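User: Show me sequence and structure for the first protein, then do the same for the second.

Assistant: Starting with the first protein.
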Amino acid sequence: MSATATAATIPPTRPASSRPASVAAAPRAAAGLALTERVAGQEQLLPAPLLGLLVSLHRAIEPERRARLAARRERQAAFDAGALPDFRADTVAIREANWKVAPIPRALQDRRVEITGPTDPKMVINALNSGAQCYMADFEDSTAPTWRNLLAGQRALAAAVDGTLTFEADNGKQYRLRPYEERAVLIVRPRGWHLDEKHVRVDGQPIAGGLFDMAVFAWHNARTLMANDRGPYFYLPKLQSMEEAALWETALSQVEQALGLPHGQMKVTVLIETLPAVFEMDEILYALRDRIVGLNCGRWDYIFSYLKTFRSHADRVLPERGQVTMTQPFLKAYSELLIRTCHRRGAHAMGGMAAQIPIANDPEANAQALARVRADKLREVTAGHDGTWVAHPALIPVARAIFDEHMPTPNQHHVLRQDVQVGRDGLIRPSGGSITLAGFGNNVEVCVRYMAAWLDGNGCVPIHWLMEDAATAEIARAQLWQWLHHSDPRGCQADGSPVYLDDGTTIDFDLFERTLAALPGRLGDTIHLPGGARIGEATALLDQLTRACQFIDFLTLPAYARLS
């Protein structure tokens, strides 16, 4: 079966009248474009023809991007009024038809262990040398998007692709890439549709951050990667609908056209990390069917999206985040439906992140943490996942051992999971559990410490032996808002149904204030913490976000305005 559907009754991915205009051949002069900041070497990284491509892309994509973001707001307003997400009635034909995605390239056939992380040179070298099958270089949740960080990341990736990247640490240690055939396959995650790139303005508007990340990487690396049968490959984040997937299809297709690449050369994996998207997995695969190779269980963002979607639903308040594991019924249903959907369509069903990092100087605690990783990876591989994520190189052998034992083939598309019968109610079932004082305090601490580091330019932070990024911090922040606003009479969602700690204490803003006030004592000397100098600013920002009656969709939106 080709990537083209067999049923003529399948509707187009969106009405033809709403499709963005074609990107014209990139002009050499970037009329209408303004760069609001400059760093050394910028002109070589952003030459005039590339800037011209960015102008053309923005003009073609931006109207539809704005329409898609407006559609998100409209949909969320319906959820706030009591509506529940569900499978679409207008796309039944797509879900019922017999079609498959395009064949998967050889380099992406086996993805049993992938490592993720930011794009600084040391991380890029270590990740590519790590022994993982793939490395997801992350411009989104684990990168604070300062202009310097973004350009340094693009420069590091370009040097990695051509094999010249090196790094020398302050202590003189040298980092170099292993031979080409020993390196992980590079996959780049651009930012989501909701994020602007304020340093690049076209016709007075900021360009979409994801367009900038994707186009700059493709411009510098696509031909080399294609010549080596390595892509380019991308992870697409935060999608909420098939229309948003179709918009990426338009952007990617037209960059291919501008660069003289064959259609479908740039392959993608989509992260299913929003609650609305889980109801449109078939549709997202279909919209990207000429280039998509799989879906990924982006579990942390997915939990955050559950909280955000149901922020006004008092009957769907979740317990503390440490108890919201993949064994919770709504998360188990999500992962198993993803496996069934992907394997039916010939696509990978990638598992989620193990955020643990080695616990130094405590062998017993470290052994317990590794046991949790093994149990999580065993659950994934026996359920039918084709691969998994880790945040630290030390976890690669742990994850690989589990997948090697239970998945002797490169993937397990043959595991069709026809036993999985998941309906709407199973995907949104509330979780059982409790909220402890320690869990409440941990949420506050993680939010403050992560935001302080992010404001200081660091988007990936180890806290209590877990690697925290924007997604995990968002869970903590959203839970604080939901607990307080439903429980405290002063909250904007209070309905007479208080939320209690497990000891019977009512969660209210007084408890929040006491926890914030006690945080300096809990942290001690912050001088050695990432972003320690900005702890006060981060504390004030968390207080502002938590008290606001309107839930802010992403903490990185107001924080971006403060990012130097």
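Switching to the second protein now.
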Amino acid sequence: MIRFDASRSLWILETASAAFVFGLARRGSSVDGFPQSRLSGEGLLLQTWYGPRLSDPSEYPEAVPEPGWASFSTPASLSPEIFPAAGGPRFGEPSLACVFPDGVRDSALRYRDYSIDGEKLSVFLDDSAYGLEVELEFIAHPAWDLFSRRAIVRNRAGGSAASSSGGSVLIESLLSGAVYLNRGGEYRLTHLVGRWAGETRIERCPLGEGRFTIDSSRGFTSHHANPFFALDAGASADEDSGDVRFGCLAWSGNWKISFERDNFGLVKISAGYQDRDFSIPLSSGQEVASPSFIFGFTRGGFGAMSRALHGWQRSALSPSGSELRRVLYNSWEATAFSVDEAGQTALAEKAASLGVELFVMDDGWFGERTNDRAGLGDWTVNRKKFPRGLGPLIARVKELGMEFGLWVEPEMVNPDSDLYRAHPDWIYHYPGRTRTEMRNQFVLNLSIPAVEAYVFDAMHRLLSENDIRFVKWDLNRSISEPGSHAHGHPRDANIRHIEALYRIMTRLRSAHPDVRFQTCSGGGGRIDPGILAYFDQAWPSDNTDASDRLVIQEGFSLIYGAHIMESWVTARKNWLNGRELSLEYRFHAAMAGVLGIGENLSHWNEEEAAAAKGLIALYKDIRPLVQNGNLYRLESAERTSFLYAADDGSRAVLFVFLERNRFGGRMPPVHPRGLDPDARYELVQRSPAAPLFSPPSAEIAGRAGMTLSGAAWTERGVEVPLREDHTSAIFEFKRSPLD
């Protein structure tokens, strides 16, 4: 619900449990007896509330500027301004910084008007001297206790100063705006860190005085950080309880989230474009929008935060919504670049016999692609490997009852390719400088209209000529040397690149509505709410070691749902670290998301193939719970456990992984959450827990086969008979039909 309290000049945005409120510091009010002026905050839009919804809206505080502190800290610099532009006595992170045609770098935005359309609020600000307009757009998402906001900057070029000087307004920084936490508290920051093969690891640290920034300037979201944060006061929140304020940025290019704790205890959070190598010229009539910033509040701890984000992703963000994702097989580990019709057909036949639903041929099928040094950019079938084209292979895959998918990397080009030889100017580079190769490839400059058209045409033709239902869209290097003056204004190239990618995906999805897309960037390098509005699922990491994956997947789950998280079963001895894990353990870890198989199936004996077939059948049975259920993280570290519960309370599935058993001790019971406390559930062990040990008595709380109330299971817990390192088990809670 969104409403405007005219008597107090307050805009009130509410969801079921949360509220975000801001207001206009009105003329005529005063601060400590002094009339308002530019120094004292006249006309500022100030946040007054970000937290739990109050039952009486009249109790939300009004917008009153903070008093100044000596001559060095003015009310304008101390007050929680929701869109602070660079100008006047402001010294923190600006949401907007620009240079006007006459060289002035001082913005003086004033409130003009607002409009409300359902759950959308637009507030308009003007710098009338230069004809600059800013629209602050807010959207309430009531079902998930979320809000989103962005800023749209327009050059109206109607002011006297603008008309006399002419030219463009240069935007040098643009964020979605600022949100604030209560003054004076001690806050703990939770965010995600990583690197290639070690993405989305949870980092927690106190938020001290000063400025702290998480960001990416690599041209995409990055493996090293993710545009997500959570803040709790005094480290008081856990999985089940505590106030958590959180947010994420929907942008797949260069981004940043800045956290500032000033010398008076006010915490300010700003999110938007990374302003390194950034500027956007706006001619009269042009506009530019910040990325959308999604933020929320919960009193239910980090678990409730994640469930809200997952529900929003399934219901409002994902292009395929809550549609169940298929069990897939990917050919990379079996064949690498050595793909051909006979070999892929043989793999497809093995995969189909196990119950796989989607067969994906990875790299090596196009151009002169025999290794990673050639072929990128030439998206035509290699006729030496596939003399009859892809048609016969696809027909056989479909005859086996599976859909067919394909790997592509459309934003890249090898120097050894027909495309590069024809268009060496289509890559990011600076004239006269060495062109940096990474992984033997360059990045195509999608900000050039001809390049955008080429990429769309190549992918559209590929999907039109072949019955392809799944595309793995990869990106295997960072962007460097971003642009040149020959291709327009070079310092906005990254924004134009990502906008072009979004346009390409919009057109492809419209032309090919039955195709599903996976975002991949050497693993988890491009995963964010922006890209997930166009892609159905994501590849979180090239690291497929099941033990490492549990850590990566836990961090991933803080923000992203299991319906997005593709995870593979690969070789018993992992290629990255040499660790050897059982087939069941590897399957169980992969079954926590969208199940995939990446191992060379010819290496499995009959016993392993039979076990895999049974585990795939089990996954299909519990898949609705995993992909569309509510996640409850229960434990991590030496033992990891988590539960997915159906919305209606009818079923729940419990995963347990024993990473390490020190001193041969007996582990305590696992205490499930998310069950209906008044319903009765039978506990069924769905997948072996081996090796087992004999309990000391027959009266162990929570043994398989027992039926108890949800409340009793939560209190008594489930005794999990795991003893050896890297063993696992899956249990299901089934609601009694008599309940």
